[in-house]
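Worked problem 6 (solution included).
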Amino acid sequence: MATDDSNDASSHANGWPPVDSSLVVCFGEMLIDFVPTVGGVSLAEAPAFEKAPGGAPANVAVGISRLGGSTAFVGKVGDDEFGHMLAHILKQNNVDNSGVRFDHKARTALAFVTNRADGEREFLFFRHPSADMLLHESELDVELISKAKIFHYGSISLIDEPCKSAHLAAMKIAKNSGSILSYDPNLRLPLWPSAEAAREGIMSIWDQADIIKISEEEITFLTGGEDPNDDNVVLDKLFHPNLKLLIVTEGSEGCRYYTKEFKGSVAGVKVKPVDTTGAGDAFVGGILYGLASDLNLYKDEERLREALLFANACGAVTVTKRGAIPSLPTKEAVLSLLTHDAS
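Solution. The predicted structure is:
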């Protein structure tokens, strides 16, 4: 099933990664992650926390922009110090923030995140409700969403109204404008009322996506405990007729890819990890950056493999630093790692 990866890195000299980029609009939550100042501890044991901007769709927007792509973010933050800081961070990173709204009554969401010594991640969210949950359909920047060639979103914005209706409306606007719909479910069980609600919510928009990125744990969760490494499980349970590309991320091992025509795997790029926060978002940023430069990328297996190797390297660079947005790589950093990895 897997094709040989050994020659992939050399092809970066042949015009990869590309330069021109269509607009990617990312929709959903932006928040503040509080990350322990030391690694390998539980939240209760952490002596102190550093604040880092986060929220998966916002991370992806910054990730693409930092690589040289064109992005915008649509979502809501609190009309508070943290909310204005986040909007400013988007702007600093060349992300169009004209679709950001400020809520005068609710606060910007906070999340405390740690990688425990056993390798598991622990989350504690402050959203009662937070501003991102209160985005109304009437607050959507329709013109901005209509310009997107790729519209990217997660599932957290489906948990509560009014944000859920705003999310569905935004998807519809994007689809009607000819956008490619990109979905990273980004399962965060503690935020959902129950596991059943999470499964149902995530799957409720599954069939509308053109591109889906999913982790091994999410496959197990969504299929009710089936083997995430079994191609048949992935193809029978999760690949749907409208899907152009399904990517399964395997952490440091790399990723697998499935299209209607072909499937395979691309090895990861080895680094010494410090903090895995944001690695998946950096990967998504990497692959969407490639896709924005060539909207038919998923039809050409060789080019798709180059783009996935590049995306794997984006994730690898990110885990060498703490926090999500602060550690997202530039194109130079990614290419430097790939050149080093190939030698």
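Discussion: Residues 1-14 have pLDDT under 50 and may be disordered.
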